[in-house]
Amino acid sequence: MHARIRTSSIVGMVMTMLATIGVSLALAPPAHAEVISDIAYAPAQPAGSRGHLLDLYLPSSGIGITPRPLLIWHSGSAWSSDDGKVGAAAIADIFNAKGFAVAGVSVRSSSQAIFPAQVHDIKAAIRWLRAHAGDYQLDPNRFAMMGTSSGGWLTEMATLTGGVSSLEGTIGTTGVSSAVQGGLAFFSPTDFLQMNAQNLPTGGLNHDSPASPESLLIGCALQTCPAQVALANPLTYVDSNDPPLLFLHGQADFLVPHGQSVLLYNKIKTSCGKAQFISIPGADHGLSWVLDPARFGTQTSYTTQNCAGTTVVGSPNPTWDTFEGFLRGALKMGTSCQVAWAPTVWDTGLTASVTITNTGTTPIDRWVVTWTWPGNQHITVGWNATVTQTGAQVTARDAGHNAVIGASSATSFGFEATYSGTNAPPPEFKLNGIVCTRVFG
Fold first, then answer.
1. What distance lies between CA 387 and its chain's CA centroid?
2. Which CATH class is domain 337-440?
3. Where is the CBM2 domain (predicted)?
4. pLDDT score of 62
């Protein structure tokens, strides 16, 4: 059984969580039309626990496109909590407004089950969400995951282990892909065996202790069971076919050494994978540290693709807009665009050619162009796209053969329409939910 909650009943909770994870409170009202809480994606193990539940936050009608991309969130707790979906309300308040659906997912704590149970759980949740994508207008081909600390570790494991059968598990929905198409991880542990050696000169946690969070996750003191620890190391699964991964880490992190992300970046680079690593001087462990505007311009961004890396100091700033751009690129939705409008008009009608140029650096796979007529134009037929109109709102979807638009490439479609009276051109075109530069052909 799960509950549907309207936006007005969760505003207070959203404001509390925004403050908790370090998000500015100076935001517009929540953009979620509906919250569906406590969906059981698998049976409770043990009975009465919460590590089998997820909450789903759906954008308001008219925001973004349908089907919607999905962002899966898990809050870190050093694997000590089975309520990792807490915190998703604040993330949804940001990303619903950008057209993303958001799912907050809980998994079992280390006291309830040791590794790999947590990976089995997140994969079961992803399979459930994909199997039910049609019920909630989710795009099953555009799933991404985000998390902090141990939630970042879970994000990296989910992102880097698509197709690893030994980590699928058998709980919940089966027979559906558990892959995600991108990941965004904050200050995550990776190679537990090296954490003590990477601690700050001023000290840090004793990760090798039998009572450390990492040892409790694995079920043994780390240095006594290196083979088991290796199976929980995201680096073990890195290869050139992995989806893009963005991760951030503070250089002054006391709880999870900054070197853990350095190891991951270097492994992805040598494996010819796709990653961006943003390293922030002076930042400790927490979103309020790595997203602090006072540190903007001091960060170093390392990017690797096609076996080559680049290093940029001072850009991009670690902001939610930067993260949206990464996610849109990873999900092949497009990050910037231009639309050329070339009509031929007569007394009662027009034909128009519309050329879409992908001005971003990542390919677009499947597109939707939307606009609103300022006059009383009405579409009668379209070509090279499925063009539909409801009132003044027009939606043009790719025709399949022209679904992919490479970086710095273009595709075109056309239509015929009738009108009477005014025939002003559309003031704005959006491609997959983002505003395009408009030019006249």
1. 29
2. mainly beta
3. 330-439
4. 84
- Give the model confidence (pLDDT) of 93-120 as tens digits: 999 999 999 999 999 999 999 999 999 9
Domain borders along the chain are 3-330, 337-440
Same topology between domain 3-330 and domain 337-440: no
Question: Facing residues of 183 across strands?
Answer: 145, 245
Given a cut of 80, whether residue 5 has pLDDT beyond it is no
Residue 15: predicted pLDDT: 32
What's the chain's Rg over C-alpha atoms?
23
pLDDT at 421: 83
Sign of CA dihedral 15, 22, 27, 332: negative
Q: Read off the pTM.
A: 0.92
Q: Which CATH number fits domain 3-330: 3.40.920.10, 3.40.50.1820, 3.40.50.2300, 3.40.50.300?
A: 3.40.50.1820
Residue 6 CA: distances (Å) to CA of 70, 99, 425: 19, 18, 37
Residues 332-374: pLDDT tens digits?
A: 999 999 999 999 999 999 999 999 999 999 999 999 999 999 9
